Amino acid sequence: MGKIIMSDVFYREVNSRMSDDVLAISCIEYNVVKRTPRGAWIEPKWVTDYNFEDLEHRKMHWKFILDGVGRRFAYPTRELARESFIARKRKEIQHCGRQHDRAVRYLALAETMQYGTPSLALHEIKPADDLLLSELC
Question: Dihedral sign, CA of 127, 131, 132, 133?
Fold first, then answer.
């Protein structure tokens, strides 16, 4: 993937829930408000349209986007924004899966009532390899 060409509009796809049963993906548009040699400052389109009189209120919503390739907050095309959204959701699924697995282990530990002694409580901190070696000895 080559150098990304800076455009005047950037996009970011985000979760959007219409109701408990209906999920949606929203695409937020960002306008470039200032360019620098290294990138650009962007703000949501709704901030530009609202036309705040105080610049400090507008700057609260500004984000900086670096030139080049790689992960960033918003992207110059909707396709790149969609790819970023998919990558973020995959990472979220991995994180939630690990968190779920850890919660299940702690629940099982609590239900077995074996968490009162230091040696049993500390086994959660040890790496898996140490547990295997200690059980074999």
Answer: positive
Q: Is the pTM of this model over 0.85?
A: no
Task: Single out the residue of 68, 92, 85 nearest to residue 12, CA to CA.
Answer: 85
HEC letters along the chain = CCCCCCCCEEEEEEEEECCCCCEEEEEEEEEEEEECCCEEEEEEHHHHHHCCCCHHHHHCCCEEEECCCCCCCCECCHHHHHHHHHHHHHHHHHHHHHHHHHHHHHHHHHHCCCCCCHHHHHCCCCCHHHHHHHHHC
Over residues 40-57, the pLDDT tens digits come to 999 998 887 787 777 777
Q: pLDDT digits over 102-124, tens only?
A: 888 888 877 776 655 555 554 55
- Residue among 60, 95, 88 at smallest CA distance from 74: 88
